[in-house]
């Protein structure tokens, strides 16, 4: 156990933590327990549907895919073992005494957890091992050939982890429960996540799953698809190079700025249950890689001019995304930082201020705008003939509109009149002059 990562709770604080209670969740999201139950079925069903459809000749979402695969054909113990080895590798890198330590936000019991910051090293080590596998001529295209079986294995792991997390949460102190996942309804709490920061010793399960096995796995999956493209055509297409390149940049950016995750809704507000476990370990790697999966079976010609336009679009999205996220992070860390000190702000009753100029004066969620522009750039290399590779940008628009509404709700509760004033001064939420 790494001593720097353990709970920063002294004996007296520990006793205090037992007495602090997390209030019951009154406002249930996602349609309450019934909505949660439907999502438990719909989310894995959607992953399967997308992958099966993508694997058909027409890749059309308007056609019912032919005969469904048998349960036996979806079960591949070797895929499950490979995935477990991948998680174990990431867990070992996470625990290595490399990187730095950061503190999370102050919790309800007045303590702050410590987190290891070394996800970028995990990416580098994984990239090195992948390079070694290519050099040794290991068949990375196996992942493409058995992709649906890998997705099923990831769903089984996510479900098993969620069951473990829920059982564990039943023995957790009241103060450790998530404000959003403490409704008293087992289905709802299982889905949203009952415990806020479940840990085994110093190992933070939610923090580990958020960025490492799924996000780095997404890049590895893309690389396997690229290798399959080379196997089929002798060299990778420009379209698949662009998709894999853009997405690798996005993942590396997230890992490089790992510390920023400590103030996100996922870490601060949401518990760790099926929603995040399935999202991190199955949904992200197996649906975000859909464009590259599509391109192997349905190659697309891309002119140099079109490619340049797409690169430019991705660049614009990245500048808005990174510029706005970094501006807010710098401001929250130190409002007198020279890079943000000149920006106009609104004071709030909590003592914190809200930025009202710079990126955050353009719309109320400029970071979502940049993210969505990039999402479009990742789909365009797949041409305009199919909707399926646009699944990510369509779904992501819905996700960010919903997420934005959740965040507005939280900010209204936190900042009241100051938030109303911010909404008056910056009337658009994500898309300037549209929404
Ligand atoms: P945000 O980074 O948007 O943070 C929202 C918080 O920022 C608010 O709760 C508030 O918190 C603070 N804030 C809001 N407005 C202002 C302002 N004007 N001035 C100062 N602070 C303000 O949260 P997310 O976690 O949703 O997003 C982080 C990034 O992750 C985004 O770029 C998003 O696109 C991306 N993302 C990507 C996903 C994917 O699957 N690819 C999924 C989800 C997110 P406070 O005041 O308490 O600091």
UniProtKB/TrEMBL annotation:
Catalytic activity from the UniProt record: 5alpha-cholest-8,14-dien-3beta-ol + NADPH + H(+) = 5alpha-cholest-8-en-3beta-ol + NADP(+); 4,4-dimethyl-5alpha-cholesta-8,24-dien-3beta-ol + NADP(+) = 4,4-dimethyl-5alpha-cholesta-8,14,24-trien-3beta-ol + NADPH + H(+); 4,4-dimethyl-8,14-cholestadien-3beta-ol + NADPH + H(+) = 4,4-dimethyl-5alpha-cholest-8-en-3beta-ol + NADP(+)
Gene Ontology BP term (one): cholesterol biosynthetic process
UniProt enzyme class: oxidoreductase
Bilayer disposition of the protein: Multi-pass membrane protein
Assigned keywords, A-Z: Cholesterol biosynthesis, Cholesterol metabolism, Endoplasmic reticulum, Lipid biosynthesis, Lipid metabolism, Membrane, Oxidoreductase, Steroid biosynthesis, Steroid metabolism, Sterol biosynthesis, Sterol metabolism, Transmembrane, Transmembrane helix
Main localization category: membrane
E.C. code: 1.3.1.70
Entries under PROSITE patterns matching the protein: STEROL_REDUCT_1 (PS01017), STEROL_REDUCT_2 (PS01018)
Gene3D superfamilies for the chain: 1.20.120.1630
Pathway(s) the chain acts in: Steroid biosynthesis; cholesterol biosynthesis
GO CC annotations on file: endoplasmic reticulum membrane; nuclear inner membrane
One Pfam family per UniProt: ERG4_ERG24
Transmembrane region(s): 30-52, 74-96, 117-134, 146-167, 235-252, 272-290, 302-321, 372-396
Function according to Swiss-Prot or TrEMBL: Catalyzes the reduction of the C14-unsaturated bond of lanosterol, as part of the metabolic pathway leading to cholesterol biosynthesis.
Family of this protein: Belongs to the ERG4/ERG24 family.
Name the UniProt record assigns to this protein: Delta(14)-sterol reductase TM7SF2
């Amino acid at each position: 156990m790494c001593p720097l990562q353990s709970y920063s709770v002294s004996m007296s604080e520990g006793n205090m933590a037992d007495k602090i209670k997390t209030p019951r969740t009154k406002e249930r999201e996602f349609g309450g327990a019934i909505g949660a139950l439907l999502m438990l079925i719909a989310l894995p069903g959607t992953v399967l549907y997308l992958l099966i459809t993508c694997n058909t000749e027409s890749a059309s979402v308007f056609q019912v895919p032919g005969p469904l695969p048998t349960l036996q054909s979806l079960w591949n113990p070797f895929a499950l073992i490979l995935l477990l080895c991948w998680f174990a590798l990431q867990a070992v890198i996470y625990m290595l005494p490399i990187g730095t330590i950061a503190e999370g936000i102050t919790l309800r019991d007045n303590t702050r957890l410590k987190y290891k910051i070394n996800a970028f090293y995990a990416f580098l080590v994984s990239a090195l091992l992948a390079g070694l596998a290519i050099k040794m001529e290991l068949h990375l295209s196996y992942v493409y050939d058995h992709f649906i079986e890998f997705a099923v294995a990831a769903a089984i792991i996510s479900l098993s982890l969620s069951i473990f997390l829920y059982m564990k949460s039943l023995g957790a102190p009241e103060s450790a429960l998530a404000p959003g996942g403490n409704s008293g309804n087992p289905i709802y709490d299982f889905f949203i996540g009952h415990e806020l920061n479940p840990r085994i010793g110093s190992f933070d399960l939610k923090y580990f799953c958020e960025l490492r096995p799924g996000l780095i796995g997404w890049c590895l999956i893309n690389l396997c698809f690229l290798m399959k493209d080379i196997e089929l055509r002798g060299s990778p297409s420009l379209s698949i190079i662009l998709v894999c390149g853009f997405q690798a940049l996005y993942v590396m950016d997230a890992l490089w700025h790992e510390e920023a995750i400590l103030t996100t809704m996922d870490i601060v507000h949401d518990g760790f249950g099926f929603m995040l476990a399935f999202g991190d370990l199955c949904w992200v790697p197996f649906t975000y890689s859909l464009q590259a999966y599509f391109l192997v079976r349905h190659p697309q010609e891309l002119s140099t001019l079109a490619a340049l336009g797409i690169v430019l679009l991705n660049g614009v999205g990245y500048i808005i995304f990174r510029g706005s996220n970094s501006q807010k992070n710098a401001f929250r860390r130190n409002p007198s930082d020279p890079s943000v000190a000149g920006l106009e702000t609104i004071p709030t009753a909590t003592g914190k201020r809200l930025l009202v100029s710079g990126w955050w004066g353009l719309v109320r969620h400029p970071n979502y705008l940049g993210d969505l522009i990039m999402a479009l750039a990742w789909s365009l290399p797949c041409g305009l003939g199919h909707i399926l590779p646009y699944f990510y940008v369509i779904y992501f628009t819905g996700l960010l509109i919903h997420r934005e509404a959740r965040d507005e709700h939280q900010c209204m509760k936190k900042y009241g009149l100051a938030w109303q004033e911010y909404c008056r001064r910056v009337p658009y939420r994500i898309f300037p002059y549209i929404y």
